[in-house]
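Notes from the 1:1 (GR / supervisor)

We went over the backlog. Supervisor wanted to see one worked example end to end before approving the batch request, so GR pasted a single chain during the call. The sequence is below; no edits were made to it. Supervisor asked that the structure be written out right there so they could see what the output format looks like.
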Amino acid sequence: MVDFSFTEEQRAIRRTAREFAETEIAPVAREHEDSGEWPREVWEKAVETGLVGGTIPEAYGGAGLSQVETCLFMEEICRVDAGMLAAIGTEFGTRMIREYGTEEQKKRILCGVADGDLIGALGNTEPNHGSNAAGIETSARKDGDEYVIDGVKTFITHGTIADYVLTMARTGDEGHGGISAFIVETDRDGFEVETEIHKMGWNASETAQLRYDGVRVPEANLVGYENMGFYQLMEFFEEERVGIAAQALGIAQGCLEHTVEYVKQREQFDRELRGFQAVQHKVADMGVKVECARRLVYDAAQQVDDGEKPTKLASMAKLYASEIAEEVASDAVQLHGGNGYTRDYPVERQFRHTKIYQIGEGASEIQRNIIAKELLDL
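Structure output shown during the call:
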């Protein structure tokens, strides 16, 4: 069990993230969610504050945050608005480059992202292949000292503004063992944004479907080893899932806080809402769920920092936090009554954000499969 007495440095990271969220994100979150406009000005301030590229090593301009510290940052931003975290998080693909990239790739991509000179995207999901990542059809054919990439990627965060897409493509046989990872610069011939995708939440973070039509990249853009890309990607799924869980936790925490404040102030039948036992019980259940999720998240995060591979715990944290986020947000809307159904209150926006957390980085059904496999030695 993790020691929840965070260090002073970790508490400082939490304070910095909370201050940024409340001063820079809260005033504009609704505006960008409604307009769908990417908040460039908020991203630029995040870069200046050192909140972009947090997991990138200090040697390449990042903050070198641990997993626990990364979760603290994510929780605090999502406590205010989860969609804005997705909008300012532009370091997609950097984990793999950090571990498997060449020194040239690290200097170019990692430094570029940390400095705000580059915006990254990860191209894995395809129209016919989501959770079944081993079934991807995008191909990369070797031609001399280049690879020629053809295919379609969908649900790509930052697809319309990215400078590069870390693209998973098939270089070998069918299955897990025939996939490689490539850095694909978006200004290359044959690369295009096929369509923008409109969503129920996370609207400040644009999403797109991308087409690769004979896109040529040099051998130097291969990340790691040919035909090992899937395994390289999976190596970081525990970290990604713990991060997703921390984001969901942040939503739940924010909705709980908004609800507590609301029921203390709102009166019905000549008494405060908090005076009704039905309200008290609902809030109590919300609080229990949030605290249980918090312990799963930070237990899993600490295991990552300890060099362990928390396959079971990461999936538990991701599954539980994502599902209670929806439940807590739904209860928050309910306790806000008619006001909760309007866009004047942040709980409505956060409620819409919750659903993606049960889908992204492995749907809840996939997490249950993983947990059962670990428990039952399947």
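Supervisor's comment: The CA atoms of residues 105 and 172 lie 23 Å apart.
Batch request approved.
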